[in-house]
């Protein structure tokens, strides 16, 4: 990947965001659209986690990362502080890889 491509993609991303602000302006979005937009991050983050946990390139893989994510999920479910959730997930992944 070249720096030119990185800069072009960055500018394109910025222009898309600015275009949305200019087109919408001060108008309110319909309530149904607002409700959907609020739910996008809640759906996108777990999807990215699952994709990165169970795939390498185009292949599905079940390895130590799955154990780490499972341990971190249980820790988060038990309401452990976020820093400890990360440490638990990384620790379990490292432990499984070491075995």
Provide structural commentary:
There is one protein chain. The chain is mainly α. It folds into two domains: 1-45; 62-99. 78% of the residues lie in helices and 4% in strands. The chain is built from four helices and two strands, in the order ααββαα. The protein has helices at 3-24, 31-54, 64-77, 82-98; strands at residues 55-56, 59-60. It has a two-stranded antiparallel sheet with strand order 1-2. Helix 3 runs antiparallel to helix 4 (82-98). The longest helix has 24 residues, at 31-54. The protein starts with a helix and ends with a helix.
Primary descriptors:
99 residues, mainly alpha, 2 domains, two-stranded antiparallel sheet, 4 helices, 2 strands, 4% strand
**Rough outline:** extended
Helix amount, in percent?
over 70%
Unreliable spans are none
Strand content: under 5%
Provide mean pLDDT, rounded: 92
Number of strand segments: 2
Task: Note the run of SSEs as H and E.
Answer: HHEEHH
Number of domains: 2
What is the CA–CA distance across the termini?
36 Å
Summarize the biggest pleated sheet.
2 strands, antiparallel
Our Rg estimate from Cα atoms comes to: 19 Å
How is the largest sheet built, in terms of strand order? 1-2
**What is the number of helices?**
4
Class computed from helices, strands and strand pairing = mainly alpha
């Amino acid at each position: 990947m070249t720096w030119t491509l990185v800069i072009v993609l960055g500018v394109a991303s910025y222009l898309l965001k600015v275009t949305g602000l200019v087109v919408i302006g001060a108008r309110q979005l319909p309530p149904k659209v607002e409700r959907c937009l609020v739910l996008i991050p809640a759906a996108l983050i777990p999807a990215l986690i699952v994709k990165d946990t169970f795939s390498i390139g185009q292949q599905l893989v079940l390895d130590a990362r799955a154990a780490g994510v499972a341990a971190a999920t249980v820790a988060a479910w038990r309401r452990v502080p976020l820093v400890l959730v990360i440490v638990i997930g990384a620790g379990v992944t490292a432990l499984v890889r070491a075995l």
